[in-house]
Known about the structure:
The protein has about 475 residues and is of the alpha+beta class. It is built from 17 helices and six strands. It has helices at about 1-10, 15-50, 50-80, 85-90, 95, 100-110, 115-145, 155, 160-165, 170-180, 185-260, 270-300, 310-315, 335-340, 345-360, 390-405, 430-445; strands at about 325-330, 365-370, 375-380, 415-420, 450, 460. A six-stranded mixed beta sheet has the order 2-3-1-4-5-6, sandwiched between helices. A hairpin with a 4-residue loop joins β2 and β3. The protein is elongated. Residues about 1-10 and about 460-465 have low confidence and may be disordered.
Amino acid sequence: MRETRQDSRHAIPLQTIIIGMVGIGFLISFILMYFMYQTSKSYGDSRYSTQNYIGCQEITNDLLAGSDALTVYARGFVVTGDPQQVELYYSDSQAQNAIDEAVTEVRAYSMDQRVLSQLDNARQLRERLTATEEYAIRLKVAAIGGDISEYPSKIQSVQLLPADLRLSPEDQEEKARGLLFDIDYESSQNEISLRINRGMDVLMSGMLTQQVKSSDHLLAMLRGQQLLTVALMVFLLVLAVVIFTMVIAPLRRQISSMTNDQELSEEGTSEIRFLARTYNQLHEQNRLAAEKLNYEATHDELTGLYNRSAYASALDGLAGDVGKIALILVDVDLFKQINDQYGHDVGDGVLKSVAASLMGAFRRDDMVCRIGGDEFAVIMSNADSSLKALVCEKLKGIAVALSRPGTGLPPVTLSAGVAFADQLIPDTDLFKSADLALYEVKNGRRNGCGFSSTTGIIETVTNARENFAE
């Protein structure tokens, strides 16, 4: 108890926590005001960032210019046969990489799949046009009879179709020009421009819309933060009141109940209610555990009857008041032979059967006990020697039932000794009288019962045929 008090002195009081929370709340409020100032500045920065969107238009122009430049170089060669046009075709890295660089730049602005999809389609169309242009250049080289080794490796790797190889130089030259000037080529070129414009239009539109929304959001956030600061202060005050009413006051009442060993009432926050329920459950579990321990201490594990300890306590409690009780001691005859012949499992079954028979035959107020291996005792309350015939009849009924168990158990017989307190000689021990009566039965023919008498003479009834059998 002393250690508990010491721990409580070192614990942080709940009131201190509440004060700390209120202080932190006000600190957060001032920090929030600072961020409001920063938010106002960021509004101007967000509007200034609109200039970045103009760069998207420049990307669009670079894309279209790059694609057009490649077309100009390729067409210039197939028309003039000037090798310098081929050199420009491959040396203009800006034109060659325009779309890939555009995609990289666009990703820095947006990951909109609609934009990327349009640019990807434009790139695929450009790749097909490049293949057509390289084929036309290779065909032009064949037509003019130029040395192919003097041209870039990509041109050298182009394989002409057999049908084109068989054409005359004039026809090859004509076909080369036709590949770059026909309607299909123009359509593909226009499609590239269309997809680039569509993609960049989507990007520009999205950026502008987002920028306007962002600016409006910053203004709204500024106003909201101002209101939030006031609301936060009010909230902290309300929170202090709620914590006091929902935490501190219930805890004080719970402590008082625990001090008085009373059941806790479920009130306050969910955590306090949970603690109250848990405490009440533990209190009930402790009570049930105590009852279980008491039951196990006073009952036999195998049969469920009272054990020898409970039997001895009962007799000790009746030591000064034995006027109207009877004690019946019962042994299972030749029980050791049953164990040896059938095994201990069957022996345990016999003991359970005997216990059940005794419990069923006697009253609820009578105390049926197992006081040894095959030894049982019954303490009958409010019983005198006038019940002698009734007791004999009960024992007979039990014996008859056990002689024909019908449950896979072997038939058994019982020997019993009975002592009525009203028949005892003064200062005679009740147990010794019943035990002596039992001894007389077991020393005789067993399968019967014996009764002590006022004269100390044991009256035995051992004729099973007449008394313990039909």
